[in-house]
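Thread: assembly with ligand

MN 10:42: here's the input set. Chains plus the small molecule as SMILES. Want everything predicted jointly, not piecewise.
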Amino acid sequence: MTGTKQTYVGQSLPRLEDRPLLTGQGRFAADISFPGQWTMRVVRSGVAHGKILSIDVDAALALPGVHAVWTGADVAHIPPIPFRLTGLKTLEPYRQPVLAQDIVRYVGEPVAVVFAADAYVAEDAADLIDIAIEPLPAQVRATEPPGAFAEGLSTEPGVIRKGFGDIEAAFRDAHAVVSLELSVGRHSGVPMETRGAIGRYDEARDILEMHGAAKVPHWNRDTIAQMLGRERHSVQFFEGHVGGGFGIRGEIYPEDVLVCAAALTFRRPVKWIEDRREHLIAANHSRDQTHRIRAAIDAQGHILGIDNEFFHDNGAYIRTHAATVPDLAAAMLPGPYRVPAYRVAGHIRLTNKTPAGTYRAPGRYESTFVRERLLDAIAAEVGVDTVEIRRRNLIAKSAMPYTLGLETLGTHIVYDSGDYALLLDKTLAAAGWDELQTQLQARRAQGEKVGAGVAMFVEKSGLGPFDTVRVDILPDGGVDVITGVASIGQGIETVIAQICADALGVRYDTIRVIHGQTDRIDRGMGAFASRVTVMCGEATRMAANKLRDKALQHAAQLMQTGAESLDIVDGEVVRIGGGPSMPLRELARALPDGLSAEDTFESTHMVYPYGVHVAAVKVDAATGAVAIERYVIGYDIGKAVNPKLVEGQIAGGLAQGIGGAFLEEFLYDEAGEPLSVTFADYLMPTAREVPASTILITEDAPSPLNTLGLKGAGEGGANPAGAALAAAIDDALQRPGAVTRLPVTPMRLKAMTSG
Amino acid sequence: MKPAAFIRHVPKTLDEALKVLSDVAPDDGRVLAGGQSLVPIMAFRLAKPAHLVDINEVEGLQHIACDGKTLSIGARVRHAAFHKPVVDGPLGALLSYVARHIAHYPIRMRGTFCGSLAHADPSSEWCLVSATLGATMVVKSTRGERRIAAADFFEGIMSTALAEDELLAEVRLPLLAADTKFGFYEFSRRAGDFAMASSLVTYRLAGGKIADARVGVGGAEPSPRRIAEAEAALNGNAPGEDHFRAAAAAAADAVEPLEDHQTTGEYRRDLVRAVVHRALEHSI
Ligand SMILES: Cc1cc2nc3c(=O)[nH]c(=O)nc-3n(C[C@H](O)[C@H](O)[C@H](O)COP(=O)(O)OP(=O)(O)OC[C@H]3O[C@@H](n4cnc5c(N)ncnc54)[C@H](O)[C@@H]3O)c2cc1C
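BT 11:07: finished. Tokens for the full assembly:
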């Protein structure tokens, strides 16, 4: 059995985490209950902007089964929720209090909470709470001149300015200037599992616990400890199964703080499970952004400069992400193209809508839509096709690594590796592009409105600054990998096990990956920004290598041979070339301190996967409906640890991208009343609206920044979907630039076809 | 999203059901059939009925019967019962074709034909079928029985001629002559959603010419109805593109379209033109 070592990295192996999920043994937030627990219900503002005159809680308190009611006054001592990322100082006065203090700023803002025996009584009581609010004028559009957030505070708390090159010269010397106004509608991640949090205080150990944690448990633990004035080790967070994250779930929201504060105050477990209507008005929205963009070009359509002004509708408060989304939109806009001069002014604007945060490919779904629309417009201006214009402008492989000259998320943007033109060729070939063009032309000649479009993008992934991993050999021969990242359902248990298995020499299904438990590891960065496989994966490989060396050293002594003549295969220390062997578990038992190793991977630069989407659509001119006829995605992620899971990430992201392109939109009326508060109004794509897609995963540009060459795979399915579909619709209508706004609803499209 | 408290009554006989209904009707008592519309409304607390009269165990309401002239559908008959034709001939085929457009499979397993009529959503497929084909509602209460023609039954968005203490016990659809042609088309943003506009057409051919045309339009106005102007554009003419187009245009002109924040009247009119045209194309 020696010599035939199996390799796990690169194989599409079944997911280790599926068994409990498929057999109904999953433990999601709502599955967690403690004896004697109270239910919390949030009473939310029904007014978009107004002054709270009075809150009458008497009738609610009188209802049997109601234990307590809190209003703003009861939590006035708790500070507003701080920033986790990109926290500009000027944004601080705009943070959200856990319950409204005097002023409400969006429909859905928590104004009071009821604590009751069960969810039914809690909701009955919530109905009885009478809140008198004097309405104030509502700001509902980020493109309108800013108003006042509070005395002396404008609703434009900041403008993101970045740039490089001589932008004035670029426009002065331009052969032509192409200008567009483009916007992406407000939509967001809508996970199947709504949010939930269970606070519990263990008086005997003086530990405050929060169950239902997700995404960034360590950061949230530290923050809640700070907000409630506790020492960080006296607060522990526990992650169960998570039914989808997408950026929005697992940030600290008012409800998380409230269950913890209430558990401490009342010495009772307090459980809050969000309902769907709440979710659609309370959890972070995203994507609501309007760009006014100009490109200076030469006669061949080469970009000389891009001037990008945009208005980011952040909703009513600045939440944990602070300026993350507009900052990424500003920094990632140049994408895969050579842009000699660039200037951006990103206006962060507050409106009386649900606060916004990150959603899968934050800032990039928006900026890719804008940039790729711009490329299509340049193509039309100089009269070349949309593929040719991209070829002319792509950054060459020889220019890698490519320093963009911008910063985001505290890192300099340096595209680490890439062969953009090669992936364009491969993806077009996979899509049968040339033949498709001929077919589409023939069908258009018959009167059909059919067309195809291309969109390209650069993603970012693997955000540091570090990840730490400990690997333990257990006495039963199992292996524990303990990490501070989190699982939001993306398959990290499997992927991390595959990496560990190869490095250590054990079977991947003997490995248990422990994540999201603050009492198991002291620090951790969590799961966001497509970082887990890259950061935790490399840390795992390093720790497993260390452990392997350690094991071989010890085994060499016991087996009376040199470590270099030993190997670990399937969990057994073997002699290369045959002879007696020793299972790792025996080695671990033989050592007084057991067998374990820890290591940390640090990184100050992100890694940059890149991709191409090709869409072909048919427009129904009579109704304005669009049918997607073909969808092909090429994505280079350096090294796919588990190609099947990468495909899953891409296919899922695509569904969300299609949602944002055609269906999903949080609409508001002029008074700031939300109009999309149920699944009858906020339309998620279903299996019927999402076509089968062809996914081409390539490994032509491994990252030089980690040993395996890894880049993240989480966001490339969503990123350019709006852009590619818009291009395909333009082509179907034979009207370049027709689509200026997402989502393209049938009514909007019908207006384009008849207009 | 927990409903307010209510008392659920589970009568076993029709008399018992009518008795409870008349007792609880003044106290916002309501019939619970498949619950596919009522239960979500209660979960959102848009309705807080104090009593539910659950008819799912009432004997004598589960029939689908045909007497050679009409098809009778009892109050417990679910949408899914029509997945396969319930009678030979065009009516069975029509109902089976239309049924597949109602919501999604799990909802069709619970929701009832009569519940759809009582609920009277403007977009309901069964309401459109009933209005187009001229159904008769058999309505019962402790006060007795009455019959209401479809044209008089639908009174607006989610509003019918039913009194609070009345049960829609049965709906009767006239059988269609064996040579009847039908066509149906609906438009919605996603498969399974309530239609933004829908159309059902039926007609016969006499010497190659359209006769007895019925053109029903749903989802466009507060209640589905037949559009006389469109029927006139068809009767006496051979089926084909010109007359289909004319009928579709006539229907689009005739409707007074509903508007909402996602749908202008103008767009809804465009949809009416499209769905009538496609229903007619489907009829060939
Ligand atoms: C996601 C979703 C999508 C849907 N899509 C569609 C669709 O595309 N097309 C469509 O037509 N429907 C659709 N529906 C609604 C579904 O078809 C319902 O089943 C139907 O509207 C009501 O029938 P029910 O038996 O469920 O009635 P219930 O929900 O039980 O009752 C509805 C109302 O009618 C009253 N009622 C019911 N039966 C009687 C009776 N016999 N006599 C007097 N009053 C009565 C009730 O008191 C109540 O007010 C959808 C529902 C959902 C949840």
